[in-house]
Design brief:
The chain is of the alpha/beta class and 731 residues long. The chain has six domains: 99 residues, PriA, 3(prime) DNA-binding domain (GIY-YIG endonuclease, 3-Layer(aba) Sandwich); 63 residues, Arc Repressor Mutant, subunit A; 171 residues, 3-Layer(aba) Sandwich (Rossmann fold), CATH 3.40.50.300; 188 residues, 3-Layer(aba) Sandwich (Rossmann fold); 61 residues, no CATH class; 89 residues, Ribosomal protein S10 (Alpha-Beta Plaits, 2-Layer Sandwich), CATH 3.30.70. 31% of the residues lie in helices and 23% in strands. It is built from 20 helices and 31 strands. Strands 12-13-11-14-15-10-16 form a seven-stranded parallel β-sheet, sandwiched between helices. Strands 17-27-26-18-25-24 form a six-stranded parallel β-sheet, with helices on both faces. The two termini are 36 Å apart. Bound molecules: adenosine-5'-diphosphate and zinc ion (ZN). The site of zinc ion has 8 residues, from loops.
Length: 731
C-alpha cells in the first residue's frame, strides 16, 4: 500500500473504479490537485463513473490519450487503512476489487454536488381531504420518524407521483425546506451516568475498556446467557472509545431489533447514533457515509454492510449475536461480517467484541486457542434465572392425526394461561404446511424452477417456493393426475399450528410471529411491542422470535419439534440446533417470574438434545470440536465451495468435471477436491447447480491456489461460477 501523496494538476494517477474492467485506469489530475484515496468521477467511454485515486499512474503507453479526471468529489479521501482493508478482503474472498469498491460506496448521490437542497418532512397541519395516496405519504413520514426526504425519495417510498407530495405541501401537511446537506450527527456523551453494573459486569467492562485504551488490535469473545447484560457491558466499551474520540460500530443481525437498541443508546449517551441498514432512507445513507469519512459520527449501528463504511478512525467493532447466520452475505460478494470485522480491526488498531449467548464453534475455538480473549457472564441480571429445561418424549405421547401439541405441553400451556402468563410455541417452519400431496396419485407439488417443494401459505392464499420466492395459487385439481379436491397438506407450519391452538385453547389470544406475515419492519416491531405489553396469551413463532426480543410475561417455551434440524447432512446442523434451542428457551423467564422450556422430541437420547438439557455447554463444544478436528473440518481445516450454475445441465457438469481434472494447483498445496456433485438444491430459478468442495489443512495459502485453479478455464457465457470461502451452509 502506497503512502498518502498529493498529486498536482496534470499528474498521472491510477484510478480504481466500480466497473468490472480487470484493472485500474490512468487519468490526469484536474485543477486543484488531489490526494491518494480521493473519490473522483472519471470518464469511461461515453459515461462517467465513480472511482478512487489508488496511487501514481502506470504510464508506459501513449500519454497523449490519457483523459483527465472529471472532478474530485467533495468527500473525505479514503484512508490508507480502508484501502488495505478492501485489498485484503478482496484477496480473502477472491472478490474482484471493483466489486469491493461497490460495497464501500453503497450510498446513492455521492457524486451530487454539495450545497443546500430542498427536503421534505412532516408538516404541521392535516390535509383538508384524505385520499389513499396522501395517506401513504403521511404513513412514510410517520414510519421514518423525523427524517427528511428528497421529493423523489418521498414520492418513491410512498408509491405516489410527486404532485401528490406537492399538494400536501400546499396544505401544510408536508413541510418543504432548504436544508444544508449532510450535517454531522449529534454528539454522544460518554460521561452521562450509565446503569450501575453488577460485579461481574463491571469486571468485564473494565477489561474491555483496557483494550480500547491500549489503542491496539484485539478480539474478545463476550459470552453470556441472554439477559446477562452483554449489551450494558459493551456499551461501556463504546463509551471508552468515544472518550478517545475514535469511532465505534455496533453490528446487529436484524433490523427489527434496531429500535430497541437505539433507545438504549439514547438513554446511555443522550443522543441517537447513526443508523445503517436497508430500512434507512437514501438521504440518511448518504449523510452517514460522508460523516463516517469525516468523523462527523461517533457511533454507527448497522447491518453487516456497515463494515464497509469509510470510517475515519474506527476504534471498536461490536458484532452482537455473532453466531447469527445473517452475517454471512450469500449474494454477490461472499463474505462473513464477523471475520471481516476482525480483519478490519486488525488493520486500524481497533478492538473487536463478539457478543453471544451461543457463539459459533469458530469463535469458541479461537478463544480456546488463545487468539481471542474470552469473558463470561454467567448469571442473568436481577431476578431472571435461566429457565428449567426438560424434554418431552413424543414416543410416549398420544397424538391424534394432524395434531402436534402433545398432552403434556397442552397441560403446561393451560396452566400458564390460567395464571395470566404467556406461552411461546416454537416451530421453525413458515407457512401452513411444508408439503402438499395428491391423495389420488401421491404427487407432491413442486416449484417449476427449483428442486424444491412448494409450501402452502394460507394467509397469502398461495403456494410459495422458499427457494426462489415463486408463488402460484393453490390448484383445484392435481397438476399430475387432474383428480379434483384430493390435494392435502402434510406436516405443520406455524399457520397450521395456529389452527390447532385455536381449537385447543379457544379462549386464548394468539399471536403468530413469522416474517412473511408482516408487510414491514415497522408492523413487526409494533406487534412485538404489543405482545411484550401482554397483548397475547400464546405466541406462535418461527426463528424470528429466537432473536433478542424481550417478553417479560413469557414463562413457558414449548418447542414443537426439537428434532427438526438434527437431520440433514449439514456440517453445522448440530451447532445450529444447539444455538437455536438455547436461544428460544432463553426467551422464557426474562422478567421477574422464572421460566420453563419444554422440548418435544422423538430422540431424547440424541447427543445434541442431551447437551441442551444438561446445560453443559462446554461439554457440547468440546465434543463438537473433537468431531470436526477428527474430520479435518472447519475450524480445524479449511473449506471452499465452488458453485457452478447454468440452464444447461450437461454444460455445467462438463465444466465441473474439467475443473476437477485440472486440479494440479490444488494438489500442490495438498488440497483435495470433491465433486462435481449436484448441489443440495440442484436447481434454482431454472439454473442447474453443481458444486465442488475443496478441503485443505489449516494454515495453507488456499486463495492463490484457488485463483490459479479456476483461472485455467474460461467460464462460458451462460455459466456462472462463484467461490465461497469458509462456506456456512452447503447450498
Ligand atoms: P444481553 O445483551 O446479555 O441479553 P442486556 O444487556 O440486554 O443483556 O440486559 C438484559 C436486561 O437487563 C436489560 O433490560 C438491561 O437493561 C438489564 N440490565 C442488565 N444489566 C443491568 C444493570 N447493571 N443495571 C440495570 N439493568 C441492567
Ligand atoms: Zn422455486
Amino acid at each position: 500500500m502506497g503512502e498518502i501523496e498529493f498529486f498536482d494538476e496534470g499528474a498521472l494517477v491510477s484510478v480504481l473504479t466500480t466497473e468490472p474492467l480487470g484493472r485500474a485506469l490512468d487519468y490526469r489530475v484536474p485543477e486543484g490537485g488531489c490526494f491518494t484515496g480521493a473519490f473522483v468521477e472519471v470518464p469511461l467511454g461515453p459515461r462517467r463513473v465513480m472511482g478512487v485515486v489508488w496511487g501514481k499512474g502506470e504510464g508506459g503507453y501513449d500519454l497523449s490519450k490519457v483523459r483527465p479526471v472529471t472532478r474530485v468529489l467533495d468527500a473525505a479521501p479514503m484512508g490508507e487503512a480502508m484501502r488495505s482493508f478492501l485489498i485484503r478482503a478482496a484477496d480473502y474472498t477472491l472478490t474482484p476489487m471493483p466489486a469491493m469498491l461497490r460495497l464501500a460506496t453503497r450510498a446513492p448521490g455521492l457524486a451530487d454536488p454539495p450545497g443546500p437542497r430542498r427536503v421534505y418532512r412532516k408538516g404541521w397541519s392535516e390535509p383538508d381531504r384524505m385520499t389513499e395516496a396522501r395517506g401513504r405519504v403521511l404513513d412514510v413520514l410517520d414510519e421514518y420518524g423525523g427524517a427528511a426526504f428528497t421529493l423523489g425519495e418521498l414520492a418513491g417510498l410512498a408509491g405516489v407521483s410527486t404532485s401528490v407530495v406537492k399538494g400536501l405541501v400546499k396544505q401544510g401537511a408536508v413541510a418543504e425546506e432548504e436544508a444544508p446537506r449532510d450535517l454531522p450527527y449529534p454528539h454522544l456523551d460518554p460521561d452521562l451516568p450509565g446503569k450501575e453494573l453488577a460485579e461481574d459486569q463491571a469486571a468485564a467492562a473494565a477489561q474491555l475498556r483496557a483494550g480500547i485504551a491500549a489503542v491496539r488490535y484485539g478480539t474478545t469473545l463476550l459470552k453470556g446467557v441472554t439477559g446477562s447484560g452483554k449489551t450494558e457491558v459493551y456499551l461501556e466499551a463504546v463509551a471508552e472509545c468515544l472518550r478517545q474520540r475514535r469511532q465505534a460500530l455496533v453490528l446487529l443481525p436484524e433490523i427489527a431489533l434496531t429500535a430497541e437498541f437505539l433507545t438504549r443508546v439514547q438513554d446511555r449517551f443522550g443522543a441517537m447514533p447513526g443508523e445503517w441498514h436497508s430500512g434507512v432512507t437514501q438521504t440518511e445513507r448518504r449523510r452517514l457515509w460522508r460523516m463516517a469519512g469525516e468523523g462527523g459520527v461517533g457511533l454507527v449501528v448497522g447491518a453487516r454492510s456497515a463494515l464497509f463504511l469509510p470510517f475515519r478512525d474506527l476504534g471498536l467493532i461490536v458484532v452482537d449475536e455473532e453466531h447469527d447466520t445473517s452475517y454471512k452475505q450469500e449474494d454477490g460478494a461472499l463474505y462473513n461480517a464477523r471475520d471481516m470485522a476482525v480483519l478490519r480491526a486488525s488493520l486500524c488498531d481497533a478492538q473487536v467484541v463478539l457478543a453471544s449467548a451461543t457463539p459459533c464453534l469458530e469463535s469458541w475455538a479461537n478463544a480456546e486457542a488463545g487468539k481471542y480473549q474470552r469473558i463470561d457472564l454467567t448469571s442473568r441480571f436481577g431476578m431472571a434465572e435461566m429457565p428449567d429445561l426438560s424434554s418431552i418424549d413424543m414416543r410416549a405421547e398420544t397424538l391424534e392425526p394432524n395434531r402436534w401439541i402433545g398432552p403434556t405441553l397442552v397441560k403446561a400451556v393451560t396452566a400458564r394461561i390460567e395464571r395470566g402468563e404467556q406461552a411461546l410455541l416454537f416451530l421453525n417452519r413458515r407457512g401452513y404446511a411444508p408439503v402438499t400431496i395428491c391423495r389420488a396419485c401421491g404427487h407432491q407439488i413442486g416449484c417449476d424452477h427449483c428442486d424444491a417443494r412448494m409450501v402452502e401459505h394460507r394467509f397469502l392464499k398461495r403456494l410459495v417456493c422458499h427457494q426462489c420466492g415463486e408463488t402460484k395459487p393453490m390448484p383445484a385439481a392435481c397438476p399430475s393426475c387432474q383428480a379434483e379436491d384430493r390435494l392435502a397438506p402434510v406436516g405443520p407450519g406455524v399457520e397450521r399450528l395456529a389452527e390447532e391452538v385455536a381449537e385447543r385453547f379457544p379462549e386464548a389470544r394468539v399471536a403468530v410471529l413469522s416474517s412473511d406475515l408482516f408487510g414491514s419492519a415497522r408492523a413487526l416491531k409494533e406487534k412485538i411491542g404489543e405482545i411484550a405489553g401482554g397483548g397475547a396469551d400464546i405466541i406462535i413463532g418461527t426463528q424470528l422470535v429466537a432473536k433478542g426480543h424481550n417478553f417479560p410475561l413469557l414463562t413457558l417455551v414449548g418447542v414443537i419439534d426439537a428434532d427438526l434440524g438434527l437431520q440433514g447432512s449439514d456440517l453445522r446442523a448440530a451447532e445450529r440446533t444447539f444455538q437455536l434451542m438455547r436461544q428460544v428457551s432463553g426467551r422464557a423467564g426474562r422478567g421477574e417470574k422464572p421460566g420453563e422450556a419444554m422440548l418435544q422430541t422423538y430422540q431424547p437420547d440424541h447427543a445434541v438434545i442431551r447437551a441442551i438439557l444438561s446445560g453443559d455447554e462446554e461439554a457440547f463444544w468440546r465434543a463438537e470440536a473433537a468431531e470436526r478436528q477428527a474430520a479435518g473440518m472447519p475450524p480445524y481445516g479449511r473449506l471452499a465451495g465452488i458453485v457452478l450454475s447454468s440452464p444447461d445441465v450437461q454444460a455445467v457438469f462438463d465444466f465441473g468435471a474439467e475443473l476437477a481434472r485440472r486440479d494440479a494447483p490444488l494438489r500442490r498445496i495438498g488440497a483435495q477436491v470433491f465433486g462435481p456433485a449436484p448441489a443440495p438444491v440442484a436447481r434454482v430459478r431454472g439454473r442447474h447447480r453443481v458444486r465442488l468442495l475443496v478441503k485443505v489443512a489449516k494454515g495453507v495459502a488456499l486463495q492463490p491456489a484457488l485463483a490459479e485453479w479456476v483461472g485455467q478455464l474460461k467460464v462460458p457465457n451462460n455459466l456462472r461460477l462463484s467461490i465461497d470461502i469458509d462456506p456456512q451452509s452447503f447450498y
